[in-house]
Design goal:
It is a single chain. By secondary structure, this protein is of the alpha/beta class. It has 2 domains: 271 residues, Crotonobetainyl-coa:carnitine coa-transferase, domain 1 (Rossmann fold); 87 residues, 2-Layer Sandwich (formyl-coa transferase, domain 3). It has 17 helices and 12 strands. It has a 7-stranded mixed beta sheet, with helices on both faces. Strands 7-8-9 form a 3-stranded antiparallel beta sheet, covered by helices on one side. It is elongated, with a radius of gyration of 27 Å. The termini are far apart.
């Protein structure tokens, strides 16, 4: 039988047109997304971008909370009754919206039938919140033992805080991130500051995605599904990274340093004649180049500044000396000089500046999508940063209107006819875009 590989190599090109090519890396997976707001939807959007079919289950009235978090609106900034805010659009492309009231028995039965045909369930209800409807992991696992069930909560399924609601801002404070973000108390504007986006939610969504794909790989080997317990607090603490390790290693509480780095000097923003720029010196070679550019080539020989460790000790003195020099020239002048010297540096861009940046443009981080039936012909959105050479990310569907796909999914996937669907609408078991 040793001839088979070479035989197939010869014939494969002729049969290639008969083989179904996957639409994406995860095109064989179906996700039932019962989550709302950001962490769960971010995970399901990532899976959808990678080719999975994502069915977003929403309340009949209002749908996902973030649909109302506007203006601005995707459809029309003046259309105040729109159900697609820009916030909602950030986490809900490549999904099909099915509006179902699963507090009603008929609605619950629809969800159970969808579970039978799904690979993954994502939910972010309070601990035990879905058990009263028979939509908890134990119940669904009995129906579909291959099911991957990802629960996302503020504090996890166990522990003294398990019953508490969790929000990103709250977790940033409780989880220590705000204690190391912002300027020191003794400086103007000092005090704890949250990150400008709901970073804990996003990181939880990404960790959730990793957990789901790990569970899928396990299922491929064993045939069994499993429950994934994701907590915003767990993720936030894990992402303290080097700051947490600094504390665990030394016993010293990290402090807020503004834009400075606790382990590297100089690594922060500096004033120029017309603004501020960022300089990130990561090794001794870069520090020597930086000193040459500043015109102070003697600094690397100064015992105070000769190594990164000594520069941390004499941080305040060094930063003041650097600032006195850099304030003499414009930002553009320094950026040009520093780049010529091989010193990592950059501007502090506003969001509008970001999308004018030639690298951002080259990488196509802003995309455009048609909106059928909208007053606007299209809308702009952020690209997924994952670049796969064989199964690239696809943008197949804009963020859906509430109930936009209810009829399609229940008809094609569950086999309901128009009469049955119309009756469910009349009973307010399901909702559809009219």
């Amino acid at each position: 039988m040793t001839f088979m590989p070479s035989f197939w190599v010869v014939l494969r090109p002729a049969f290639r047109h008969l083989v179904r090519q996957p639409m994406g890396a995860l095109s064989e997976l179906r996700v039932l997304d019962l989550s709302r707001v950001l962490a769960g939807p971010w995970a399901s959007q990532t899976l959808g971008d990678l080719g999975a079919e994502v069915i977003k289950i929403e309340r009949i009235q209002g749908g996902d909370d973030t649909r109302a978090w506007g203006p601005p609106w995707v459809d029309d900034e003046l259309q105040l009754d729109s159900n697609r805010s820009a916030y909602f659009a950030a986490a809900n492309r490549n999904k099909k919206s099915v509006a179902v009231d699963f507090t009603k028995e008929e609605g619950r039965e629809l969800i159970l039938k969808l579970v039978e045909k799904s690979d993954i369930v994502i939910e972010n209800f309070k601990v035990g919140g879905l058990a009263q409807y028979g939509l908890d992991y134990e119940t669904l696992n009995a129906i579909n033992p291959r099911l991957i069930y990802c629960s996302i909560t503020g504090f996890g399924q166990t522990g003294p805080y398990a019953d508490r609601p969790g929000y990103d801002f709250l977790i940033q404070g409780l989880g220590g991130l705000m204690s190391i973000t912002g300027r020191p108390d003794n400086e103007p504007g000092g005090g704890p500051i949250k990150v400008g986006v709901a970073l804990t939610d996003i990181l939880t969504g990404l960790y959730g995605t990793i957990g789901i794909l790990s569970a899928i790989n396990h299922r491929n080997k064993t045939g069994e599904g499993q429950h994934i317990d994701m907590a915003l607090l767990d993720v936030q603490v894990a992402c303290l990274a080097n700051q947490a390790m600094n504390y665990l290693t030394s016993g010293q509480e990290p402090i807020r340093l503004g834009n400075a780095h606790p382990n590297i000097v100089p690594y922060e923003d500096f004033p120029t004649r017309d603004g501020r720029i960022i300089v990130t010196v990561g090794n001794e070679s870069q520090f020597r180049n930086f000193c040459e550019c500043l015109g102070v080539s003697e600094w690397p020989s100064d015992v105070r500044f000769s190594t990164n460790a000594t520069r941390i000790t004499y941080r305040t003195e060094l930063i003041e000396l650097i600032s006195q020099i850099m304030v003499r020239r414009s930002s553009s002048d320094w950026l040009r000089r520093l780049k010529e010297c091989g010193v990592p540096c950059g501007p502090i861009n506003g969001v509008a500046d970001v999308f004018r940046d030639p690298q951002v443009i080259s990488r196509k981080l802003k995309r455009e999508c048609r909106l059928p039936g909208s007053k606007n012909k299209s809308f702009e959105f952020l690209a997924n940063p994952i670049r796969l050479s064989k199964t690239p990310v696809e943008y197949k569907k804009p963020p859906p209107h509430l109930g936009e796909d209810t009829r399609e999914i229940l008809k094609n996937l569950l086999g309901l006819d128009d009469k049955a669907l119309d009756l469910l609408v009349e009973k307010k078991v399901v909702g559809m875009q009219m």
